[in-house]
Amino acid sequence: MRWFWIVLLFGIVVGVLIGYKAARWQKAPAPADFDLPAIAAPARGAVPSSEAFVKVAKIAEASVVHIATTAPIPEEYRLFREFFFGERVPESVPANYGSGFLFRSDGYVLTNFHVVQGADTIRVGIDEKTEFPARLVGYDPLLDVALLKIEASNRRFKALPLGDSDKLEKGEWVIAVGNPFGLDKTVTVGVVSAKGREFEEIDGRPAVTSYIQTDAAINPGNSGGPLLNLNGEVVGINTFIIGQGGNIGIGFALPINEVKRILDRLLKGGRITRGALGVSLIDANSPEARQAGISADEGAVIVRMAFNSPAYFAGLRPGDVIIKFNGVPIKDAAHLRRLVLQQPGGSVVEIEVLRGNERLNFKVTLGSR
To answer: Does residue 159 form part of some domain?
Structure first.
């Protein structure tokens, strides 16, 4: 009988323990059991609120301008039409339109050179009702940048700050503002699709630098307008698109740091000159170079040069493999061409070459283009 009570008591104790464990396992954890914040912080790169875009649009409102130009009609054409057809032909006709932005309060405007190229008159509009005459101060045809000065004495304007395009990241939000198809102060939003997009030529001009690619809508008339970050700083100048006639989500902006490098020269006035070496080049690892017995993996091979070229006068010769330019290792021919173009005409540079098994160093005074 005693064993019966002992077994029964043992069973009760075991049952209680099992019930306690089961109840604890099924119990939902209390909030204190989790070490989580009450409100999670937004992830980096998350879509900003509309207030961020509205703020930048307001910052840009008074600083982004539209630009209209006229171009002269050749006198021979006017005289021909007047003599044979009795027509009265105007001296100038509307030529181009585009965008720009004030970066100094005393009326200095940055835009693309192709917006004002060949113009005899330039007008800059602050809004749809307020326009001022402007003059071309300085320009760089290869970089496609022009500096204008609004002719309005003692008038102060609201300027946009210039940012740092080197700090841009792929996927970062950007805002384009401009005058597409004559629609003043149009704002479009997108991201940095890519950085460092390289081209051999753009509209027949050798490319001086690489470009920012964006899917913010850019259309004809946006040329010269700013690409802004969410701080309202100019990080690029909207320059060209891929596609005929309109936006397909692939636009390109000139990094503002490239403009800042020549800003002092633009303010001094006139045409910015670019360096010229006076040679034809191929990649050191190209099939043509291999056939010529070149074994270098990187660099640019001189295949031709003029007898009066800066390279010839400095002592370089066809067959030389240029491996360094001012101490920078050369990747290929396009890399070297870009480095040369980034130098002012007339500058003295150091070039290291492979000639057979020898490494030779030269100082070259660049020509101008």
So the answer is: no
